[in-house]
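Tokenised fold entry reproduced for everyone:
>
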Amino acid sequence: MTRGEQWFRSALQVRHSVIPAILSRTLLCGAFGVFIAVLHELKFPVAMPALASLVPSIVLGLLLVFRTNTAYERFWEGRKAWGGMVNSCRNLARQIWVAFPARHSSDRAGKVAALKLLVAFAVATKLHLRGEVPNDELAALMSPEKFTKIQTVNSLPLQVSFWIGDYLQQHYNRGDVNSYQLSDMHLLLNDLVGHMGACERILKTPMPMAYAIHLKQLLLLYCLSLPFQMVGSVGWWTGPIVVLISFTLFGIEEIGIEIENPFGRDENDLPLDLICDTMYRNLMDLISSTPSTSHHLAADRMAADRIEELVRE
């Protein structure tokens, strides 16, 4: 398929578009335009070009642009937060997998469980943002005891972050890492919680209701006044022209509504399921790797501890 064919296919695509959402109100305005055209043909005095100044088009355009730009900023900020979450998760997983020794099979199993908890943090954040309860996807990433516990808490991702931080502290207490390594890992864990907080800020700061209502009222008033403005010059074409203009204006507003909360399951929301699956595959690839520096870890920790002692002195 050529680029031109792809362009026309996208332009004529109904799925993922806002057409189903705005079709009814667009046809309603078009039908009202046909009704005014009928009255005009019956010699009723419905032609009123002066109504063009009722809602100035430039004012309505600026309101729509502001509405769409604000919604896209929320969408893009949500995407950046999830991108940062993915990067922090990868970096923390890499440090855990390389820095923590695996003297026994239980140590390796503990590291695998910790890496799965990192994915569980992303899944828990997704469920938290969608207002959903813990499900089988989350249960597969933690022990049954932890899954039972997490069903009783209010903030799923915060509980998972507590378990990850506790795991890091346990290894520090065992002497597996020094304070600098622990600090770096906790900074990455803090970043994860910070990205989750950024998503919560988007979710819990909706568009002001007064602004949204007023914009809808102006849109409806403008579209219903169009037939009176143009029926004297275009006659029976009033209905189709009103449909085209209404389609444009209602479509722009609906796009803003679609993307202002990017964490749901709508087709135009962020692909959170795909992002979580990608994180899981990345960490499973990491688990299949064996650190080549494992036999040097003890010497490296002794050297780092010695440097830390010198700094303190």
User: Anything to note?
Assistant: The mean pLDDT is 88.
